[in-house]
Amino acid sequence: MSQNYLKVKGLSKKFGNVVALNNFSLEVARGELVTLLGPSGCGKTTALRLVAGLERQDSGTIFLESRDLTLIPAHHRNMGMVFQAYSLFPNLTVAENVAFGLQMRKVDRSARIKKAHELLDLVGLDSQSARFPHQLSGGQQQRVALARALAFEPEILLLDEPLSALDAQVRSNLREEIRRLQLSLGTTTLFVTHDQEEAMSISDRVGVMNEGRLEQIDTPDDLYNHPKNVFIANFVGLMNQVSGTKTGKSVSVFGANLKVKNEVVTDGRVLVYIRPEFVELECTESDADAKVISRLFLGSVSQVICQLNDGTIVHSLLSSRMSAEFAPGIRVKIRVNEDEVLVSNG
Ligand SMILES: Nc1ncnc2c1ncn2[C@@H]1O[C@H](COP(=O)(O)OP(=O)(O)O)[C@@H](O)[C@H]1O
Ligand SMILES: [Mg+2]
Questions:
Q1: Binning pLDDT at 50, 70 and 90, where does residue 4 land?
Q2: Which of 12, 18, 19, 209 has most ligand 1 atoms within 8 Å of its beta carbon, as the pocket-test mutant?
Q3: pTM here?
């Protein structure tokens, strides 16, 4: 995919002394869903508000194709936005809410009504069109907000933690629905969340942010399998941290010598990062590394949680059939089924 539809380059934004964004660059291809993922306060909302034109950058540029958006006010940027929650107009019906953006754009009444019903149908709420927002559940309200943002066929859809206020079940249903809708309409979308599972499950690419900077942007698979640094490795997916000894380009852990992926770490005692699916267990009586403390059955796979002799907790992800023997109290030897690992000085 050529990444040249939305082009954000070198954005910086301060609020007083607080650096909200620090030289932030991002390119999004037409039709792509890119998620900005990061801890609270890392600058996700600021990035979105700058793209929307609701805030003005201190420096840097935002281009949509060859159009420089810097001086274009928010209401001329043609971007649809959905916020965390409760952003519907309480005194308008569901259909009127969805038609609102079209009215602003001077679309005539019958075309507005037709479009509103079309969008409500897409999000499965056409039967609720005469209701008022307070008569809907949180999940339904967010569907209406989504329909409203899509009604005027925005060039970019901006979603700022739209699922964060919802219950787990509703949240996971709606995230699948957002993705399905986005793919079928082909709407270029910038999604913001602090929830890594949400980000990884629906995105073409995920950009991980930290302290106003974009640390890495990649497909979910590449982020998970090839995190650029320890911050990303820990932020994306479950990651074990165990102690090892580094000598040059190799590190000794659980009696094996593994290659060190990242180079700027000094020799000696280090933390070694290992995904649970690479931790293999073997029952043993004599030379145990750890003791099983619990086993979580998750269906086809199970998570076996072990405690090392030094107290460190290690998670192992195994097929449920393979892991049945690892009951609490069983002593195990650990093998790392990986050749190359990330390390840090801890
Ligand atoms: N209007 C504002 N005034 C002052 N500080 C702000 C304002 N908006 C954001 N900030 C600060 O900028 C940083 C980034 O905020 P934000 O973009 O909202 O982060 P996120 O959405 O990732 O939680 C935070 O430290 C936040 O407190
Ligand atoms: Mg935010």
A1: confident
A2: 18
A3: 0.89
